[in-house]
Amino acid sequence: MMSDWLEGTKPKYIECIYETAIEFDLEELGIDYDTIDDYYIKYGKLTVTFKDGTTSWYDGDEGETDYKWARYENVLDESWNKVEGLNWWK
Questions:
Q1: In terms of Cα–Cα distance, which of 34, 61, 66 is closest to 50?
Q2: I want to staple 17 with a disulfide (CB 3.0 to 4.6 A). Which of 65, 72, 74, 79 is the partner?
């Protein structure tokens, strides 16, 4: 019996993507937003450059990730491409 899948398109992975948040409470961190010149967040760490030229780094409040329901689920082939017709998430 032949498979209905084209070569390399048979589902190999089911991927679940969850959302989570990291919060930075400026008041708790003692930061007045008006004193910020620039900021960026990388690897969950907030880097703030202040108008006076100083730079500081802050860890955020990492909440609990809710693994009950995934935000997205993808059915993927061996090349990690979405399998046509099996993914209803955009």
A1: 34
A2: 72
Domain of 82 in residue numbering reads as 1-20+71-90
Do 4 and 15 share a domain, yes or no?
A: yes
Q: Is 61 helix (H, G, I), strand (E, B) or coil?
A: strand
- Report whether 59 contacts 45 (CB < 8 A): yes
The 10s digit of each residue's pLDDT in 63-82 is 888 899 999 999 999 999 99
Which pTM was predicted? 0.67
Distance CA 84, CA 6 (A): 11
| 15 shares a domain with 27 | no
